[in-house]
Every structure is written in C-alpha cells, then in structure tokens.
Amino acid sequence: MDHEQHFRDVYEAMFESLLAYALRRVDQPDDAADVVSETFLIAWRRAREMPDGDEAKLWLYGVARRVLANHHRGGVRRERLGERLRHLLRAAPAADPSVVVPVRVSVRSMLTRLAEPDREVLMLTFWEGLEPREIAVVLGISPAVARTRLSRARARFRELLEPSERVSAAYNLEDER
Amino acid sequence: MSGEQIDQLLRDADPYRRPEGEAVKAAAGELLEQIVAEPVGSRRSFGLVVAGVAAAVVAVAVVVVPATRHGDPDAPATPVSTPVSSPAVPSPSAPPSTPPPTPSSMPLVSGVLDPERIVLAAQDSPRLTPGEPGWKVIHLEPFGVRQGEMTYEKGGRRLEVTWYPETDYSQRRTDRWPSSRKVSVGGLTGYLLVPSKGTFTVATEPRDGVMAVLNGGKGFTGATARAFLTTMRRVDAGTWAATTAAQTDREGEAGTRVARLLSEDMPPPPDWNAWTSAKELPSGSTLELDDALVKRVTCGWLIEWQRAKATGDGAALTRANQALLSSAGWRTLQALEGRTATPQLIRKIADAVPSGRASAAEVQAYRASVC
Lengths: 177, 371
Fold this sequence. Notes:
The complex is a heterodimer.
Chain A: H1 3-23, H2 29-45, H3 53-72, H4 80-90, H5 102-113, H6 116-126, H7 132-139, H8 143-161, H9 163-172
Helix pairs in contact in A: 1-2, 1-3, 2-3, 3-7, 6-8, 7-8
Chain B: H1 3-12, H2 22-36, H3 47-59, H4 77-81, H5 115-124, E1 128-129, E2 136-144, E3 147-154, E4 157-165, H6 169-172, E5 181-185, E6 188-193, E7 200-204, E8 210-216, H7 222-231, E9 233-234, H8 237-247, H9 250-264, H10 286-311, H11 314-325, H12 331-335, H13 342-352, H14 360-370
Antiparallel strand pairs in B: 1-9, 2-3, 3-4, 4-8, 5-6, 6-7, 7-8
C-alpha cells in the first residue's frame, strides 16, 4: 500500500476520534479545527513513518498532544483569512447539552482541579477509551508508570469527590495505629 | 460510592457529542483533499482548510470542555532547554545549600537519564529523599513552577511525593483532620493521615515557597509509616540530584526517553516493537542509550532496505532510503558528534547505501556494524 492510501485509511478511521480528542481539550470548538488540521498535516508529512493499525491511533494521539500543547502556548495560528473566519465563527454560540446535567458539569469542574498529568490520564482512559499500555505510548512513559498514574489519579479524583468518606475512614482506622 | 460508580461518573462526564449530519463529513473530506494536496515536507500553512473544518465543527454545536491549558506536561520541555540559573530561595532552617547542577554539568556517563528533570526537581521540590536504602525512583516529572511528582518503589511498597506551590497549602493541608498526627519529615512539619489500611498521606507545611504531599501505597501501617517517615531526609540541591540520579530506575527512564526520541527525532524502523525493543537497549547512561538507539534505528532501516531490495518492493526501498538519508538531521546523532564513532559510521551508511554505491557485501558489513 502506498503512503497516501495508508494516510487516507488512517484519516478516515481516526478523523472523528481526533476531533473528539481536540474538542474535549479546547475552550472554543473552532480551536479544535486548528488542532485536528495541524495534527493530520503533520501526519501527512510524516506518513511514511506512521505505524499501522492500532499503533497509528496512538501515534496520532501523541502528535495531537504536542499540537495541543503548542496551541495552548499560542503556537497554532492560521493565515489571515482563517483568522477572520475564526473570528466570525467565534461569535456563533455553541450549545452545551451538559448545562442541563449539573452532575456532569461538576465532575468536569473537579477534573480541572486535578494536576494535568492526573487529568489527562483519566481523560484518555474514560473518554478516549485507552488502556494503560496504550496511554503509555501516547504520553511517552512506561506502562508501569501509566498504571501507577491512573491508579493515583483515580484516588485523587475520589478524594475530591468524597472528602467526607476519607475522614470517616481515617476515624475508623485509629485503632490500627 | 464504589470505584465502578466513580468510573461511570467520569465516563458520563465526557462532553463530546457525536456530530450529526453531513456538514462534518463534507468538511472532513475537504480537509483530507487539501492535506494530501500539500507537498510532503512543506511547512506552508493552509488557512482555508482550518476555516472549513472550523465552520463545520461550530455548525454541529458541540461541547464545553475542561480546558487543559494549565500544567501542560510538555511545558517542562521549555525550561529544560533553558539555562538553569535561579537556585531555590534559601531559608535559615534549610539544609546547607550547594548550587543545583545544570544539565550540562551532570556527568554524561553517570547513569543519569534525562538529567534536566532531576535538575528542575532539585530546584523546585522540597528535596526530600528516603534515608532507608533500597528505594528506587521509577517516575519523576516536574510539571510546572514548584509543581511536580515522583514515585519511589521498594519491594511491594510505593511512595509518591508530589510538590505544590505554597499557595496550594490551604486546599491540601491535612492538619485539620481530627485523626491527623503531627510528624517530622526531614525536618519539615507534616500531618499524617492513614485513610485506609496499608496507606498513608502526609502534607507538609510550606517551606521556601513549596509544600509536599507524600502518599504511601499498600504495605504501610500507621506504625510503619511513622517509622519510615523518620528516615526521610531533606538535603541540599546537589545532594538531592546526585542521590536521585543514583536511585533512578534506568530501564523505566530509558523506555521513556526512547519513546520520546522516536516520536520527535528519528523514524522508528518497521521492525521496531514499542513494547519490547526499548528493553533490549542499554540504560546505563544517556550517552550509551542514545548511541545504541541510533545504531538500532539504522540497523532496522538497513534490514528493511535489504528486504525491499531482495523482494523488489520499490515503495519500501524508497522509504528505507529516505529514513537513512534523514539521519543527517537527527538531533540525537548530532549530539553524539565527537563523543562516539557512531556519527561517522552513520554518515558513511547514509552516503553509500541510498545512492546505490554500496555493494551487497558492503551493505551487509554496514549492517553487522550497527546491528
């Protein structure tokens, strides 16, 4: 298979996943377009290096992660025409179905209180549906560290969610000291 | 609430809603065609592409998100590459201070991998270290100003140390829990909680603008936690960096570094296995690891080159040639210049093999020299 067909296949399989990944991590929906476009452009330029199968997915998430970091540093900016259209689009209100579901909103709010490594590992697990060994590839860490980080992130999220439970547990274990 | 219920809460909080309609599909198709029309290797930007997809994305009206702009894990990459010049603020009660080492001053063959992270942590963290022998550092990641985390492991026990700026103390202090006990952690005052059997948490009062939270994993009781904490020491930056370097689990660090270099610098060859190949490389030092990785990548592409040549696979041969030629731009290889003989060897290979000047026997000899 030539590299263009390989790229087209990966693009078709991954477009929505990448769009979802970006939308989950930017403030404005139209910013996600920058991230998706830049990620696939890099993938196209490096299509010959892009792995096959599931590893292509992880490789793309890894690229998107760096593009997103650059975006947050203000590094992803398009030409004048793009900027103008973006400005127009920004004025269009984006509906948020979650506003009617306060629990979801508060869960997301709690996620923002976690440190970025903890938050990202939870998002990759529960939103992107990745396993720890896959998260390790995306984040460039060892699978053992990914597992530890996920375990810790869950525990920290639980602490935010249920501080009172932790207090009672502490009371209950007084006798073990 | 059970762990499964909490996991479900997290799943349900996913803000993404699948776009419907043809608008996104059309924009995706348009974007694809515009991207593949871009010459490979071009750095030209493409404003219309972005605008097209942006329009479609907004048209389907998706989501609000927890923005992740704070504490970006890639952010440490920036300070890592800048000179480290501001030592931690001394305080009268701090241990005697020595200037923190800089990445360039770290010995290259000391076994320290990614020494920049150790330098950053030596400057920013409370510089606590277990006095009990046998603890290994399996993870170290500064992820912001006076923020970072590390994990120690010994046998079946784990200890996580996370540090935060002083301003976080009010949220993280543990002294308000009725069951907390005052403890000393390397001369810092902390408050110990044992929230569940076999674990513990201590938050230390801030010192020099930073506080620490220590979490002990399974294997601790209240008594063993207190005994363990008495062994913790707080040391100066130079001692901490040297101690931490010596405690670093090299295989884990090597895997992290290899993953980073193969995603950012060198093209992984087709026979590269992300799960197992890194483990075959030496992890004694950055120099040793990088040198072996460059050879391993070149080896993989030479094997692919020979396979493609033997089977008449023109596309694969082109790919292998391009990968070998790209070695001139590998930063990892450039950093080995003058330190090992590998750059000279790789230049010869890149010069002779893709151009077709090397005979089959010479290619085989090159392969033997790097594989």
